[in-house]
Amino acid sequence: MDVAIIGAGLSGLSAALSLERYGVKPTVFEKEASVGYKFFNTEAMFSILNRPSKDCIEYIEKEVKVKLEPIDMIDKLTIFSKNSKGSIEGEIGYSNIRGRTEKSYEKQLESKLSAKILFNSTEDYAYICKNFEKVILATGDGEYASRLGNFKSDLTCTIKGAIANGAFSTNTAYVWFDYDLIPKGYGWIIPYSDKEANLVIAYPDYPNNIKLDLDYMWKSFCDVVQRTLNQSLRIDEAFEITRYMMGVSVRPKIDDTYFVGNCFGALLPGLGFGQFASILTGAYAAYDICNIGKYEELVKPLYETYNHSLVLRRYLESLDNEKLDAAIRSLDNKFLDGIIDKVCNTNTSLDILKILTPLMRVATLKNK
Ligand SMILES: Cc1cc2nc3c(=O)[nH]c(=O)nc-3n(C[C@H](O)[C@H](O)[C@H](O)COP(=O)(O)OP(=O)(O)OC[C@H]3O[C@@H](n4cnc5c(N)ncnc54)[C@H](O)[C@@H]3O)c2cc1C
């Protein structure tokens, strides 16, 4: 069977590997000269946000038959707001590298693939459709899906990041929610060694935010981070992404075209996590092609997660700094601490996002 995959990112490579496992040799088209983002980035996969997985790496190994090598387990997440601080401890998830370095998740997947990737591809969807029986759209955004009238865009955001040189612990990540600093958005640090980390800010492109001065915001954020962590950081290799699309496909498959990864709606609007669902959707599309499962059925829980995450986004946006302070302070409340520890434990698949969705809906309405 002639199967084309457009895009050799996480979802496209996961699809390619899964097809090969069942004896189908795909043709993979990649527009760049290599797999991986042009910039170096440390990302995270949080098991607590990707239920039913108890441990997202083990879950991927079981579902996709690929063992990914993360950097480390993140067992502490410290969250700052304007005037308070709280932390979550437990087996929260894993950090990993993205980009063109050897250990990035894309490079790990590519190294297991037999099929040749056609780099620097300029072939478009219409051409590929005419020449292949099945097409997997894995381009990392909703553009093609939008053009086909199959994408509900919920927001776009602006992202700026860089490498920060300082002193870190690879199992501790940090997040900042301060809407004076980053309106309706957030900033974070995920370390990839004890000396280097990625420092990133992201905020939605709402009309009021379009007027913001990104460089000024970035500088202010870097100052706050250095003050809060009580260290001076050397900031290198900055990157910027504009209008990064967050949305979801209306249908996961139309005729013989499969929408996977961010084209499907893997990127969760709540906090911007998309790796887990990208890898799964790629594999699920392959399973459908190989008659092992039905794509529409396999992705049903991922649509649900997307919708819960959208509720989280709207809830976060309905808060102000005072409410953020109160919410973040409560994380260190003795009673909540015990519950959070249980939720983060790898022995549970408790879906906290799903449980909190009705409460967040009510709170969002109240906050308006
Ligand atoms: C700065 C940043 C930080 C992030 N942090 C996290 C995080 O901490 N945790 C998390 O889970 N997720 C995070 N994400 C989201 C996550 O990276 C994505 O959801 C995930 O990579 C999407 O996988 P994908 O396969 O859909 O796309 P990608 O992995 O982006 O791959 C798409 C590929 O398609 C190629 N392509 C595009 N168009 C064409 C075309 N026309 N023809 C051929 N090839 C094409 C691209 O060059 C690329 O190689 C982050 C994203 C960004 C940008």
TrEMBL record:
InterPro entries: FAD/NAD-bd_sf, Geranylgeranyl_reductase. It comes from the Bacteria. PANTHER family: CONDITIONED MEDIUM FACTOR RECEPTOR 1, GERANYLGERANYL DIPHOSPHATE REDUCTASE. This is Dehydrogenase. It comes from Clostridium manihotivorum.
